Amino acid sequence: LELNYFLKILQKPKLIEISEHQKHANMCLIPLDDLIILGCCDVTDPTHHWAWSSAARLVHTQSSRCLWAEPGSHLQLESCGASPAWSCSTSNGALGLALTHLYLNVQGAQVGLGDHLQTTGWRRSYEDNLNLSSCFSVSDPVGPDHLEVQPDPVHSGSGLQVSWSRSAGHVDRYDVSVEDSSSGSILRTTVMDSAAPQSMFFSLSPGTRYTVSVVASSGTKTSSPVQTRTATAPSTVDSLQVVSLSPDVLSVSWRAGPGRVENFRVLLTDQDGVLLKNVTLENTSSSAELDGLQPGTPYTITVVTEAAGLQSSASTQVTTAPAPVSGLVLDSAGSSDSLRASWFSPAGGLDSYLVALWGSGSAPQRRRLQPNTTQVEFEGLTPGRSYQLSVSSSAGGRSSETRTRGRTVPAPVSGLFLSADSRELQLSWTPPAGDWENYSVVLRNGSEVLVNRTVGKLTRRHVFSVLDLGLLPGRLYSAEVTVHSGILGNRAVCSARIAPSPVQLSVHQADETTLSVLWTRPAGHWDGFMALLRQTDGVLDQRNLSRDAMGVSFTGLTAGRHYTITVMTSSGDLTSSTSVMAWTSPSQVGGLQLSNLGSIDSLQARWEPASGDLDSYQVLLVHDSSVIKNESLTADTSSMTFPGLRPGALYRVVVTTVRTGRTSRQTVAEGRTVPAAVGDVRASNNGRTDFLIVSWHPAAGEVDRYLVTLSDGERMLHALSVAESSPSCVFSSLVSGRNYNICISSCSGPHQNHSCIQERTQPGKVQSPTATHAARDDYLKVYWRPATGDLDRYQVFIKHNNMFLQNQTVPKNQSECVFTGLVPGRLYTVLVNTWSGKYETSASTHGRTLPAPVRSLVLASRGPEELHVSWWAAPGDVDHYEVQLLFSDMKVFPPITLSAAVDHCLLTSLTPGRLYKVLVSTFSGPNQRARFIEGRTVPSKVKNIQVSNHGDSSSLQVSWTPGPGDVDGFSVFLFRDGRQLSLRTVLKHQNQVTFGSLQPGQVYDVTVQSVSGDLLNNHTASGRTVPSAVTGLQVDPLQSTCSLQVSWQDALGVADRYVLQIMDDRGIQVTNGSQPFGQTWYRFHGLTPGKKYRVLVQTSSGGVHSPGVSAEARTRPAAITDLTLRSNSTSSLSFTWTPPVGEFQLYELFLYGADDLLQEWRSLQPGSLQSSFQGLRPGAAYRLVILIHSGDQTNQTSTWARTVPAAVGSLQLQTGNQSDVLVVNWDCGGGDLSGYLLTLYNPNGSQQAKRQLGPDATEFVFSGLIPGRQYRAEVLSLSQELRNRASTMAPRPPSSFLFGSITNTSVEVTWSVPVDSDYDDFELRWTPEDRLSVINPYHSRTAGSRILKGLFPGRRYTFRLRTVSGPPGTAEAPPTYSTAIWSSIRTSRSQHELSLGKQEV
């Protein structure tokens, strides 16, 4: 009977259904008691429900028992642990036990196993989730009905979230891919059917169109792809900035975000949201300007990025700068303490005005005014002061400023007074309140102006010379003083009359008792003279002299006394007098002595008082010809002490009598301070028993030498004299451990000072220390021979591994001690320390206790050819164990040596079933102790068990070699993590089994059990399936120039880690790394910047690697270093740099102005290390950006630099309409300036005046100068920290031009250097401009000679020579040149013929 059956395994509910086309149609497996029969299928009956286990067993879900069968019998239900696995044979439709030749047979209403292969046409009509065998046919899967793609809300613009509906029928997995429609690059991932039907894709390119595809897979069959098109939103712009260039212009700049961009749109809306401007720009644009705006008005700027039909935007709000005010005026209206400001309101929006008034030295006054205000008045100001006024228009947090200046009227001077005598008229006054610049002083004789001068503001008086102006005594003169501040002034007037002229009196002689005066005859007329000698209390002497007298003397006076001599000139009833004050000389002191009184830092001087009058004594203390003290003492003092002196130094004291600044003859004496004691005295034995070294800090002050003594108690042993430059000495041949006294004396002249300390020599060591255990395992005895020399005691330590355990102090008359409670078998270090004072000397030895035997010696296990013994470790320290195997008290093998950490021993190569004796000995150093045990071997087991994956990720093959002896068969067990998964029973002639449907990368344990009668012996091995490879590998460069980041999706199955290798473009491995399983990214550091690499990723599970997956990427290039400005001029900038490390293809240089507008672009090869830019604006700031390219990666470095400001042109120094005024004017040199520094120099080069001016200044007036004097003006153009110079004074040219030492190819040029002129060098030029060699024979830039070589014979040369003043090649202050002189020569073919041309200037 030919039968066709169908096996259906349903998921909900799971039934095993057998359909027969003829007799047994729609029949299912139904349990009846413990038997399995065929019955009609009933989905609602739970007794019909079956399920597949992970071990390929068929489980009855109601009873939790499994389908079981044996040959020739019917199907039954048994415990799942004893039930076999089911599988399909290679024949189509045959179902049977796994790894056997037993197949499912239909026998009437029952189903059983037999060895007859039936082709029954079994098929699986519904899929389950257990991945059943290939005997069941699988229908083609269908794709999902619904596919939806949404942007990732977290990674907006770079992520997509893909979701779909589950496919009808069975699906193993879904393959999801995202394809870039432009580049064709594809990202793939796999989602198992058991997971949620969705997937996330990250790190996509913003603004890109993508095709998303989902393919359902079941086994090896796939559905048609379900596709949809989508796009990522473009990224918003970065660094959006808006700058108000002017009140009606806004500059918008941004940086494009990552991804693709088709174009940009810039939108301008007002505060009501009304769109005012809509500008569309190309995708390469990064800035835009919006003009025609209203000043002081708020706007909203939006930059929209468009790509792939989508938009993204970034917005910011900004207010245009308000317009500044106009017509700003600050006026004093004749007031000295108030100013009024007025202006016209600006156009556009305005919130308020901020008005600020400030002046030098005055607190600023600020007023915030309403926008309808146009004037304000400031009171309480300082007269004559210059004030600055700032009016700022404010709107929306922005402001525009307008400034002006104004000045109050200065106040007049007060206390104006004119005094007169025969020599001069003196005009004095008190300065006015407030500020002013200078005064003008006028002297009048009636209406005639005699003097009109300008004086400085610090002047408080002015003198008119009678002689210079030809004034006559007795005449009335008037004077005026006008205060000037800016262009404003205020005047005051006074008058006075001249008295008769006096004589000019001088002291001719002054000693201790005599005074003599002389005089010259006065101008004009006189009748006679009267001479008066006065003291404070009255007139001492009076003498009338004739008109011809010219001197007088007074004698018998007191020394050191003050006198006044008055000479009166008489003419009629008018007199004038002249007095002179004079002093007689003070007398000298006597008996001067200088002593130290035993002090190291002081001296005392004593003397006898001087006779006569005196005010004080001047006392000088001199050391090494230098005055170190200069004291003035009262007249009643006869001694003085000098503290704080240098110890041991020789001093001289000089005493002089002083009377009103006059000094007597000097009295001198000498003395010396006591030397200082030495400091920080130290003595050390340096660890030696017969040696002491002494050192000290040198004594302060001066020392001739040091005396060092060494004594033992009261007995002096050594005395050394040491030079003051060597503060140390050494004593040897001393007694060990002895305490010595050491003194150091500082010697200076006859004086000494002492410092003493005590120190010991190192004590001696003990001799021959010994330690013994005395046959005990916790005991050591230590003894030694006594040490030599002095000592206090012994201290004995016992230690192990540098840890001190016990110590004992032993009197110096004993030489042994005992230590107990020690660890058995341990090697100890014994230290015997000898103590003397604070010093100790150590001697050491080693001793070992007796080891202990092992504990709990047992037979842990046994095998066919082995015995396994174990024990507890012996207490204490053990070097090693020795295991000896005995049979009938005979050695079987040589002893086995084991480390102390081992607590067992495996004895192999034994005879099965034999009784042995095992002896275990403990060794510690040369000592040992032993214990023994008996044991017997067991029967043999299989050999050479091997578990191999053969490169497959889902199966393992087990093979083995049978052991010696007979067996009935073998049972093979498959375990995972200790849980049994499968059991295969094979006949004894079979030695191989294959397990399929395993998990990738998983480790499995396989046990082969030898069965012989009722005895069993197991052999276990492990194997691992090949792990699956990673997917979605990506390699991306990081911000760092030497790093790459690798990312991937986790491999399916089990794995330990991921192994990563990175190789260069030659395939040579650079470095490697690993990551634990579950970590899906890794970073490589320390790579070469800008280099291309290939990354290989393998999954590793227990040392088994999957096939590698690779990807390529390039690191970012490194930036250049040391980008510096090499040189700059008014129109050029030159830069240098150090090339970046690593690899790169080219440089791109971008030069931007201060307004961030690109000025110049250029591309350079990698070998370039410098670049220059020409045609730039003087004094302007520029920013250089250098972009490094390596593949598609870049890096950049930037720096700021500024061109040198242009020097002013047409600099002129002219006289004004006054004799004391000079006017400096010039033309602006162009470019950017921050101001000018104007300096006026006197003829001797000293600075007369210096002014800092604004950038708009072109003229300045210097006043108060000396009429007729020649001045030089210098103007420095300033641009931030750079400057350029122009001067009105150039050096003089050379005065002659001569040729000598002439040949047909060389000539010596000489000239006379300019006189009365400063210069630094000479400039020599010639035409034609042949390349000649110039030699300076005197090697001086200012020498007047040069030798030229390399002239062309017969050629005419014209030479130009100029004097140079200033440093060469300095852009900040370029040199100044004189006018040039010329001369020409013509060489001939003969060596001595020369034609000279005319010299001209």
From TrEMBL:
Low complexity bias spans: 390-399
GO annotation terms (biological process): angiogenesis
UniProt xrefs under SUPFAM superfamilies: Fibronectin type III, Ricin B-like lectins
Pfam families: fn3 (PF00041)
Positions of the UniProt region annotated as Disordered: 387-407
A molecular function (GO) term: cadherin binding
InterPro entries from the UniProt entry: FN3_dom, FN3_sf, Ig-like_fold, Ricin_B-like_lectins, RTP_Phos/Ushers
Chain ranges of the Fibronectin type-III domain: 143-231, 233-325, 409-510, 588-677, 762-852, 938-1036, 1119-1211, 1293-1390
Ranges in coiled-coil conformation: none
Cellular component GO terms held in the UniProt record: receptor complex
Protein name: Fibronectin type-III domain-containing protein
UniProt organism field: Amphiprion ocellaris (Clown anemonefish)
